[in-house]
Structures are given as C-alpha cells and as structure tokens.
Amino acid sequence: MLRFENVGMRYGIGPEILRDISFSLPPGSFHFLTGSSGAGKTTLLKLMYLALRPTRGLVHLFDKDISLTPRDDLPALRRRIGVVFQDFRLIDHLTAVENVALPLRVNGGRHAEIDSHVRELLSWVGLGDRLDARPSTLSGGQQQRIAIARAVINRPRLLLADEPTGNVDDHIAVRLMHLFEELNRAGTTVVIATHNHALIEEFGHPVLQLDNGELAVRRNIQAPAVSPGTGKT
Amino acid sequence: MMLGHRADLPFDRDQSTRFLPWIVALMVFLGALMFAGAMVVSDTIDSWDSTLTGRMTVQVPKDSATDAATGTLVTLLSATPGVTAVRPVPANEARALLVPWLGEEVLDSGLPIPALIDVELAAGARLDASLLTARLSQSVPGTTVDDHRVWLSALINLGRAIEILAFIILGLIASSAIVAVIFTTRSGLAVHAAIIELLHQMGAHDTYIAGQFQIQAMKLSLRGGIAGTAAAAIVLLAFAWVGRGIDAAFLPPVTLTIAEWITLLIVPAGAVAIAMFTARVTVMRALTRMP
Ligand SMILES: Nc1ncnc2c1ncn2[C@@H]1O[C@H](COP(=O)(O)OP(=O)(O)O)[C@@H](O)[C@H]1O
Ligand SMILES: [Mg+2]
Fold it and tell me: Which of A72, A175, B22, B93 is the most buried (most CB within 10 A)?
C-alpha cells in the first residue's frame, strides 16, 4: 500500500528534517503517528500524500514508485488519498456542503447524488443543522469536522489525518475516531498524526514514532480498545 | 443548490481582475478603429485602382488643339490595338474638373487649358505611355499621354504603408493585451494559491484548474470586448455622419460595408481568444511547478 525506503527530507538548504525513514503500511492497516512538535509529522504526511517529493530515498504508493510515475498519472493517485489538514483548509466562499462536495466535483461526480451523499455525511458528524453555513461562521471543532467529512467523502483507500482531533471535545474525538475505524473496516488504510496519548492508548493501534528525524514503529502498549466507558458501541 | 455553477475559486473578490475588462475595452476600441481604418484605406485604394487602370488621358496643348488635330489623334488612337473607346473631353467638362482646384478667376484669366482625350483600354491591356507619346507627338507636336501610373502607384504605396502600420499597431495592442492577461492571471494564481494547492491535492488535473481561470478570463475579456467594440462603432458611425457631405473626390467615404462590420468583430473575438489562451498557458506553466 505505502512503503518508504531510506527516505530523507530537507527544506531547501536547511537541515535534514527526516533521515533514513523506512517503513511499510500494509493495506487495511491503522497507525498513529506521534512525535513532539516540530518532529516532522506534517512533513512525513506531506511525503505520503505527494505534496512533497523526498530529497532522497524511494516512496512506493499503491504499488507505484512515485519518482518513476509520470506527473499526469499523479492526480489519479491523489484521488484515492483523503487528507485532513492540520489547518483544515476550508474554502470560505463555499458552504459546508459545497466544501465537502469539492473532492466529488473534482472527480466529476453528478450534482444530485453528490448533494444527498454530502448532507448525510455532514449530519453524521453532527453538523446537520449547519449544512449551508460558511466555515468562518463555525467553531474550530465544527470546521475540523467539515475537513474530516471532506477527506472521507470519496471513500479513499488511504486516509491521512494531521492532528484531526486537536480542536474537539473528547466525546467528539472518540466519535471521529469511530468514523476513521469504520472507514478502516471498509478497507481504507489510515494514518492519524496526534499528540493525544489518551486517544492512542484507548484505541491501541500501532504507533509510528518520530524522534530526531528518525522513525520507530512500535506496537501499542495497550490492548486494542474495548475497555469499558469509552463510548464505543 | 448550485454546485455546478459556482467556481471553486472566488474570482469576484480579486482586486486585480477589476482592471482587465477596462484594459481589454481600451485595446479593443483602439484595435477596432485601427482595423476599420485599414479597411477604409484598402477600399479606397481598390476604388482608385479600378477607376484608373484601363484608362489613359491624352493631353493636347491648347495651341495645337484644333479640331483637325483632335480628329487625327482620335483616328490614330482608335486604330491602336487594345483601345476600346476614345472620347474627346468637351471643354466645359474639362473646365468643371479644374474649378475646384484653381477657382473660377484663374480659369477666366485666360489660362491655357489643354484639350483632353479619354482613352479606355480593353481589360488587361497595357500600353506603354512613353511609346504612345512618341508616336502621337509626331502627328500633333506637344501631345502627351498620361497613364496615371506614377501618381497611382505612389498613392497605392502610401495606402499599403498605412495598412502595414495599422497591422503593426494591432500587433502591439495584442501583445499588450497578452501582458495584461499574464499579470492578471499571475496575481490570481498568487491570491488563490491556497485553494489551487487544495484542488491539486484532491487530484484535480491541471486542465481543471486552468479551465476555471480560462472561463474567468473569458468573462472579463468578453465584457471589455463588448464595451470596446460598442465604443468603436459609435466613433465610426460618427465619422461617417460627419463626413457624409464631403465630396468623394477629396476624401474617400469613411464607411464600412456590412461584411466589413462583421469582419470588425474579429477584434473583440480575437481579444477573448487571446485572453483565454494566455490565461490557460500561464496557469498550466505555473502548475507544472507543483509536484
Ligand atoms: N515549508 C517549510 N520550509 C522550511 N522548514 C519547514 C517547512 N515546514 C516545516 N519546516 C520545518 O520542519 C520541521 C518539522 O516540521 P513539521 O513537519 O511541521 O513538524 P510537526 O508537524 O511534527 O510539528 C520543523 O523544524 C519546521 O520548522
Ligand atoms: Mg504538524
């Protein structure tokens, strides 16, 4: 699904942010990505969602060596990746529904189908009463849920989320995690960058840990989350 | 819901796009006037060309211009191969031609006005004016033949030069339009960089993004093109109205045929095409820099 081989990354002539990163994510896996602030989590995700090219090393995505893939073939790969950006990146002149519908439009979807599908998903993330609101009139947590809905609307094969639960209450964070898990059960490979150790322990997925530009993969200390009182049903 | 009808990019919030219709309007206005001017010059040259080729004028000095001499020349000319008609110009007709140039007083003061003989040639026939002059002046001394060539070719050269100049200026106007569109598009790219990056990330092809800029360029330039064409049409109609009383001998009519009015639409259509194409190329080039 996704494989990095000795990937190194530096911005311009700056220091190497990521060094010798090698790992592989099997299809249908679910990982957390952690590391202190500035450790390079966002940079690593950008390499995964093809917004950056590595300064060295190989990135294989969907069984393709990205450095050998013609530029014209990249949009098709990107359409199979859902991204939740750390800063949401909602378009302010579009309503919540229109923002979430954007990936479907880019994909050339039919309007009527798009519309009902989008409304359903927004209701599911608890925004059923703010469908036609502009992002700027919504709270940070509400914007985050729009961003998540937009990332998953296309049923991506790979979902990458950059601190997607940073701005929401705990019970909503758990609800969003359930959304990711449901998507994961349907076959989507998921990587969630987060600081929230409680969440990591509660859900118990394996962890990619960034430290000093190097990556370690470890199994979660806790057993997968079935502990009582988490609200999981 | 109007999902399909709203552009992803909020162009209506750009300051930079406000000027483009004005710039295009000004350029289309100037371009249409240039183009109309070139067409009028070209029409005029054609009309001179067709009235003057196939004609020669024989001049007989007043002293030699007896009826007998004129008769001899008419006989000689009629027998010349290629000549289809020979007509001595009556004295009052010749005088009428000169009045606007010299005035009644000068003509009444006894100016020696030569006798004129109009010669019409068969289509495509060419007679050498100097050879003919030599032959005719043997019979009637002092006779000269004017085939209007010198005068006409000078005018035609002037006319062609004006036409070429008009097209060079049109070219310059088009280049300025291209530069204006490039700058507007670039600033649009900068203003909307975040959204463009987002669309790119969602797997939008470059053509999808370029298409939005292209449609925006079309809207803006169409608005300017219509305004510029309307303004140019008003000016041209005003010229035609002001010039309607002027004798056609002095000034060619500043009017366009229906076909030429339609041809004039090339200017706004060209402006829109240039704007769309330039916007597309500019965006496509900028996007290739994204991974
Ligand atoms: N566009 C950029 N240009 C230069 N340096 C950058 C850029 N983005 C991030 N960095 C640097 O890379 C390092 C890792 O940043 P980032 O990947 O955002 O970390 P994290 O998401 O873990 O907080 C930081 O030191 C940051 O300053
Ligand atoms: Mg980050």
Answer: A175
| Number of Cβ atoms within 10 Å of the Cβ of B92 | 7
Q: Do A102 and B195 touch (CB under 8 A)?
A: no
Task: Give CA–CA dist B143/B189, Å, rounded.
Answer: 76
Interval B150-174: pLDDT, tens: 777 787 888 888 889 988 998 999 8
Model's pTM, two decimal places? 0.75
- Interface residue A91 vs chain B (CB under 8 A): yes
Domain ranges of chain B: 11-49+153-288, 55-124
Query: Which one of A71, A83, A94 has the shortest CB-CB distance to B201?
Result: A83
Mean pLDDT to the nearest integer, A2-20? 92
Residue A81 to residues A122, A190, B11, B115, B256: CA-CA distances in angstroms? 19, 10, 28, 95, 60
| Minimum distance, in Å, between the CA of residue B196 and any CA atom of chain A | 11
Give the per-residue pLDDT at B1.
33
What's the CATH number for A1-80+156-233? 3.40.50.300
Please say whether the beta carbons of B229 and B26 come within 8 A.
no
Question: With a cut of 0.95, is the ipTM above it?
Answer: no
* SS3 at position A137: helix
Determine if ligand 1 sits within 6 Å of the CB of residue A215.
no
Q: Mutation test of the interface with chain B: which of A66, A91, A98, choosing the one with the most B Cβ atoms within 10 A?
A: A91
Does A77 sit within 8 Å of B201, measured CB to CB?
Answer: no
- B197 contacts in chain A (CB < 8 Å): 51
Q: CATH fold of B55-124, please? A: Alpha-Beta Plaits (3.30.70)
CB contact under 8 A, B291 and A52: yes
- Any idea where the domains of chain A sit in the sequence? 1-80+156-233, 90-155
Q: Which two tokens stand for residue A181?
A: 């898990």
Identity of residue B50: S
Please tell me the distance from the alpha carbon of residue B2 to that of residue A132, in angstroms, as a whole number.
12
Could you tell me what percent of chain B has a pLDDT over 90? 24
What pLDDT, in 10s, does the model give residues A173-207? 888 888 899 899 999 999 999 988 888 888 889 99
For residue A52, which residues of chain B lie inside 8 Å, CB to CB?
291
Instruction: Determine the residue of chain B that is closest to A156 in CA distance.
Output: B202
Residue stretches of chain B with pLDDT short of 70: 1-7, 13, 51-52, 245-254
Q: What is the DSSP letter of A167?
A: T
Q: Of B2, B3, B196, B200, which to mutate for an interface test with A (greatest number of A Cβ within 10 Å)?
A: B3
